[in-house]
Amino acid sequence: MFNRILVPLDQSPIAECVLPHLVAFAAVYDAQVTLIHVMECPTPASRLQPIDPLSWRLCKSEAEAYLNDVASRLFQAGLETEPILLEGQSAQTIIEYAHSNAINLIMISSHGRTGMSRWNVNSVVRKIIQESLISSVVIRAYNPVVDILEGLQYKRLLVPLDGSLRSECVLPTAATLTEKHRASLLLAHVVVKPEMPRQTPLNQDDLDLIQRFVDRNLSAANDYFKRLLTRLGVDFVPRLLVSENIAISLHQLVEDEAVDLVVISAHGYSGHANWPYGSLTTSFIEYGTTPLLIVQDLEPNDVALSEAQAAAKEVKGH
Hints:
This protein is an alpha/beta fold and 318 residues long.
C-alpha cells in the first residue's frame, strides 16, 4: 500500500526520531524511500539583506553531506534511500514534491530544529499534514522510542472504529503491520451516551431511556465486531467503551493499554470533504502522545478549499 515514502529532515537530531520507524515501515512494504531537505529561502517580506552566495553554497554543501550521511546510516541498516535537496519554503516545497512524485506516505517528526515547544506538532509539520492530504505518520519527538535504527517492533496497535466504511479503510494496513510486527491489535469503539435536556436533573425515565439507548448500541457494536472477526483475517482484541466523550475515552485507552501505534482514518462516518481531517483525527494530531498513522481516505481534489486557500490560489494564479 505504501510503496513510496517521503521523509522530511531538517538536519536536527530531533527530527531523526522518525528514522527507526522508517526502517520498520519500509521493511513491511518494501517501499522506495526519499529523504528530503529544503533549504529555506527568505521571503521578500523577511529579507533584510541580500543572501551571501558563498554562505549559501557552504550551507548547501553541509546539507548535501548531511543527507548523504543519513542515507549511508540507513543503508547500513538495510534500507536504500534517495536523498533530495531542494530550495524554497519548507512546507510548500515538500507538499509540491510529494504531489509531483506520487508519494503515498509522509513520515515526519513532530518537531525539528526549532526545538520542542508547548505545541504537540510544530507549524511546519501541521502545514504538511494538513495540506498535503497524503497518508502520514507523525512521530512524537518528545517521546522517542529507540536510539538505534534497526529492530523497532510495534507491540500494541490501536484502531478506533465507528462502524463506517471510511473508518475501516485502515484495517488492511493495521492487519499487515500487526502480522509483520507480531503485535496485538486493539479495535476500539465508543458508544456515546445521548445528551438529554439539562435544565432540570434527569429523572428515572430519562436515565432508563439513556440506558436502553446504550444497551442497544452495545449489542450492535458486539455484532459488528463478530462480523469483523470473520472478515479481517487476523486476531484482534475488541474494546467497547461507553462514554460521553469519544476522544477523551480513546486517549485514555491508549495510555491504559500501553499502545505504541495508533492507526486511524482521516475521516469517520460524520466526516465530510470540507476539512482534511475529522474531529477525532484532529484530536489525535493535536493531543496524542504516541506515534500516529493517518490513512487519508480522500483524494486531494475531493477536499474543498478553505477561503484562505482559495484566496492564496487566486493570488498565485495572477
